[in-house]
Amino acid sequence: MTPTPTTPAPSATEAAPAATPAPDAPAVHTAALALGDDALVLSHRLGEWAGHAPVLEEEVALANIALDLLGQARVLLSLAGDEDELAYLREERSFRNLQLVEQPNGDFAHTIARQLYFSVYQNLMYGQLAATDSPLAPLAAKAVKEVAYHQDHAEQWTLRLGDGTAESHERMQRGVDALWRFTGEMFAPVAGLDLDREALREQWTATVTAVLQKATLTVPEGPQSGAWTAGAGREGLHTESFGRMLAEMQHLHRSHPGASW
Amino acid sequence: MATAHQPFTTAPHKPAAAAVDGAVDTTVLESAFDAAVAADERIEPRDWMPDAYRATLVRQIAQHAHSEIIGMQPEANWITRAPSLRRKAILMAKVQDEAGHGLYLYSAAETLGASRDDLLDKLHSGRQKYSSIFNYPTLTWADVGAIGWLVDGAAITNQVPLCRCSYGPYARAMVRVCKEESFHQRQGYELLLALSRGTEAQHAMAQDAVDRWWWPSLMMFGPPDAESSHSEQSMTWKIKRHSNDELRQRFVDICVPQAESLGLTLPDPDLKWNEERGQHDFGPIDWSEFWSVLKGNGPCNDQRITQRRRAHEEGAWVREAAAAYAAKQSERKEATA
């Protein structure tokens, strides 16, 4: 088989390929994998919207966000190992993403609620990370600029849907409520991520509360985590739909072991 | 030559639409229009133009815009299964570009007085068409490469001359579209090259895709010149600059050496170099298939339009919400003014 010309991932490292970082892998690998999986999985979910968006402008916007996230995922996964081995050859239990990002798209309001919760988190988290001396800081400094747009997009739509028609208000409230129980996991500790988690939680809550109130929506009051099914993605426990998502994503790659694409 | 028009001004020999009233003899306007087209000047939205010219452009630009947004479907079909993250990023960006092309083209149609909503209604109700090529299915990953190489290649061959189309906004939209399309075409070629040089199974996948997409791609240039209903008038108006058969021949001549470099075979036993003509001869096209797909009997006609309609209908509440919110915002602004 002749090797095919390929361009490297945005910042491919020389790290030896590994399907999953070894138990004694540096903590930064664990952190890169967690954040990389978040970006990879949400990018995939947003990619499912292609051809189905409610208006042409949103085809462009959702694809744009998906592409930003995929770019982040490629850098992060390459810090942890080989991007394609990590994306395509791990089993469900080895993925370290938040359960929030793997949740199916639902209707547009549900997707926007997921975007709001996650983009506010990512913006604050990358903002903090960029100011540290972590090897992930350069990626965070670049990504935080992209994520600021994602947050703006989610906020604008939360306002339009929350304060639009009776139907859109109801749908938006349903999305915000349904995903609330997946938000607590964002503030759990991650090895290799030296963040002020208390500040993260406070700022996230303040931002999300302000947007929801402005959108005439009710801030959910239920628990943000609890049972292991609600927020254990970082430990490799996922929700049922995630296995199907991976089956679709990995099928072709796994059908041709060792092939180059 | 294209001229940049200031608002409310126009070239002296091209009367502005605003200047037209019942008293003006339309034959004077028409001869000024004809002279501008003959001199290769661009017609701009404010210029007077014959109704039939406007209608032809709206029909063609709308069909082109519809093709872009329907064309997202067969490729989006593979986004979630792309076999490497690099390929996934390329494919997502490509499908996004198509949505962007749809946006420029609907905007170009709007400069002629059409509205996007109305054009979409016509697409959804079957009163306007999109390129028949998108009524074929993408069955394997290699189809993504074949679409890039052949379908985008054919589209570029068709569209490069449109960058010199007499109608300014369309011509300018096409400049940008063509730049992005040639990028897509190279990416499709490169995808097929990787497969062709890959494992036996990958090579077979690439050959199968080319076998299925070759003939439909040749049909993209439209029926033979003798049977093309809109061609003659469009040529005079410089909306169209080359005949269907001329463009089809150009495409075949471009593809033959590229197929050789790819290590893939074009599925036409009659394809050979004709020394005398300095062009390739190729076998007869099955026009009955073309007409049948055009009439709605292709493998995916129903599927494509059903998905488009569903996305539109399921998005209605979102568009209504955005409109309601915008109305509330402007009311609030007025109340505080």
What does this entry look like structurally?
The complex is a heterodimer of chains A (261) and B (337). Chain A has 261 residues and is an all-alpha fold. Chain A contains nine helices and no strands. Chain A has one domain (26-251): Ferritin, core subunit, four-helix bundle (Ferritin, Up-down Bundle), CATH 1.20.1260.10. In chain A, 50% of the residues are buried. Chain A is globular, with a radius of gyration of 18 Å. Chain B is mainly alpha-helical and 337 residues long. Chain B is 63% helix and 2% strand. Chain B has twelve helices and two strands, in the order H-H-H-H-H-H-H-H-H-E-E-H-H-H. Chain B has helices at residues 26-38, 51-76, 85-110, 116-124, 142-159, 168-196, 200-219, 231-236, 244-262, 287-297, 301-314, 316-336; strands spanning 272-274, 279-281. In chain B, strands 1-2 form a two-stranded antiparallel ribbon. In chain B, a hairpin with a 4-residue loop joins strand 1 (272-274) and strand 2. In chain B, helix 5 runs antiparallel to helix 6 (168-196) and helix 6 (168-196) runs antiparallel to helix 7 (200-219). Chain B is globular and about 70 Å long. The termini of chain B are far apart. The interface between A and B is large, with 56 and 53 residues.
Please describe the topology of this protein.
The complex is a heterodimer of chains A (261) and B (337).
Chain A lengths: L26 H21 L8 H25 L2 H6 L10 H4 L5 H23 L6 H26 L3 H15 L16 H18 L25 H16 L6
Helix pairs in contact in A: 1-2, 2-6, 5-6, 5-7, 5-8, 6-7
Chain B lengths: L25 H13 L12 H26 L8 H26 L5 H9 L17 H18 L8 H29 L3 H20 L11 H6 L7 H19 L9 E3 L4 E3 L5 H11 L3 H14 L1 H21 L1
Antiparallel strand pairs in B: 1-2
Helix pairs in contact in B: 2-3, 3-6, 5-6, 5-7, 5-9, 6-7
InterPro entries (chain A): Aromatic_CoA_ox/epox, Ferritin-like, Ferritin-like_SF, PaaA_PaaC, PaaC
Protein name (chain A): Phenylacetic acid degradation protein
Organism (chain A): Streptomyces alboflavus
